[in-house]
Amino acid sequence: MKTFTLRTIVRSVVALVVLLSGLAMIPYFDRPAAALEWRMMAGVYAPELSVHASEGALGSQFAFTGSGFPAHQPATLFVNGRYLGRVMTDEHGMAQFVVQSPTSRLALGHYDVTMEVDMNASATQGFTLSEDAPLVWAPDGFMGRLFVFGARLPQ
Asked: What is the pTM of this model?
C-alpha cells in the first residue's frame, strides 16, 4: 500500500479548500450575469435551421431562420460545403438570412445550407431548384441579409 507524505496531504487539502471556497470562480466576478449561462459553460446548444420553402424555380429566394445558437456570435454559412458568408446571431441566438438562387439551368438540383458557430453549434436545411416548381420569394417583412451564390452543380 502506498504511503502519503505530509507534503502530498497538505497539497491535497489546500486544493480542496480552494475549490470548495469558490476561489476558482474569481475570474468570473467581472462578467455580466448573461455570460454565466450554463449552456455557455457546458457548450450545449440545440440549434435549428428552418427555411420557408423547400422547393422553388431558378432565381428563387429562400428565407432561412436559425435559432438555438450561441448569442452575439458570428455564424458562418455554407452551401453544399462551400463558404457563402457570415451573419451575426442576436441576443437570443437567432439569425435570419436569404439565399438568392442562380438562374442558370446548370443550377438545378438539391442544395444544403449549413449555419455554424464555432463548430459547437451547427444546423443544416436544404432546398431544391426544379423547373416544375413555382418561383418563390422571401416573405414580406423578412429581415435578413441577402446572399447570392453562383451556378454550380450540386454536390
From this structure: 0.69
